[in-house]
Specification:
The protein is built from twelve helices and twelve strands. It is α/β, with parallel strands linked by helices. Strands 3, 4, 5, 6, 9, 10, 11 and 12 form an eight-stranded mixed β-sheet that branches.
């Protein structure tokens, strides 16, 4: 069946006039009439009959008009859905994040995004920097947020979203709470270390090497950032953590920073994407909402 002719017929059925239908479809009246005749010949059945200056649908025409309305309504719905996907009003956004962004900045960002795009399904998973990169590379997720200097990969590029800082913290009643001290003195006190392989542990040991200071005297070794902070809050020792992870406790006074003048360790949070691949609209919209100018892009 010729769909162009069917569209002309459906417009004639809707308006009750070949002239009005032709005008609505930007056709000449003879061209619209020819399409009607062609459709009738193709189907081998009369669809319209003249009734004075207007037209009247035959019983076959009435039935075909009802089916045509269903067809073109479905066409409109398909076009609407495809356009919604194209501009990111619908669809999905899959994010993999390391622990710190997933616990701190991402929840608020996702809520703000959902308020703007309520029909987009958002899925957030967490993993190590390597796992986040692997999921991004195998297309399991659309974007990855990684805290710290993640491993290099030629297939990925990043935008630095914000520069956090790694700081030394202690319970408010600790002798060094809020005080300034030397790195050597700090490493000699009871220390809560993260597990081997963790980013903060590597940065701490690199700091000790850079200043030629002995590694900290380990009082406790704990796997997990949250668990480490909870141990410090319980009143034991000093630890080295991202400032974002303890922002509330520092503000409330439950924890205090131990300052080491001259020592600053940056802890960037970066948004990773696949090089040379245009992100889908939901991911592009989310990135536009949270990302700084592309002058800070790296690879």
């Amino acid at each position: 069946m010729n769909l162009h002719a069917l569209r002309v017929f459906a417009e004639v059925a809707s308006t009750g006039s070949v002239t009005r239908a032709a005008g609505n479809l930007l056709l000449s009246q003879p061209a619209a009439t020819a399409q009607l005749r062609n459709l009738e010949q193709e189907l081998g059945i009369k669809l319209v009959a003249s009734k004075g200056r207007s037209i009247q649908l035959t019983p076959a025409g009435e039935r075909l008009a009802a089916r045509a309305r269903q067809l073109f309504s479905l066409e409109y719905e398909m076009e609407r859905e495809m356009n919604a996907l194209k501009i990111g009003l619908e669809g999905s956004l899959r994010i993999c994040s390391t622990d710190l962004p997933g616990r701190t900045v991402l929840p608020a960002w996702i809520v703000r995004f959902k308020q703007q795009y309520p029909k987009v399904h958002v899925q957030l998973t967490r993993g190590s920097s390597r796992i986040a990169m692997e999921r991004l590379l195998d297309h399991s997720v659309d974007i990855a947020l990684i805290c710290g200097e993640g491993p290099k990969d030629p297939g990925l590029e990043y935008v630095t979203l914000l520069e956090d800082e790694l700081i030394f913290i202690a319970h408010r009643d600790h002798p060094l709470a809020g005080a300034a001290t030397t790195l050597q003195e700090l490493m000699a006190t009871a220390f809560i270390l993260r597990e081997e392989g963790s980013y903060t542990r590597r940065k701490l040991f690199s700091l000790c090497d850079a200043y030629e200071v002995p590694k900290p005297r380990t009082g406790i070794c704990i796997e997990g950032m949250h668990e480490t902070i909870e141990a410090v809050k319980s009143g034991y020792g000093v630890s080295f953590v991202p400032s974002l992870a303890v922002a509330r406790e520092l503000k409330s006074g439950e924890l205090a920073e131990v300052r080491v003048p001259g020592v600053r360790v940056k802890d960037p949070i970066r948004l990773y994407t696949r090089i040379g691949e245009e992100p889908l609209a939901p991911a592009a919209n989310f990135m536009a909402m949270i990302a700084p100018p592309l002058s800070q892009v790296g690879s």
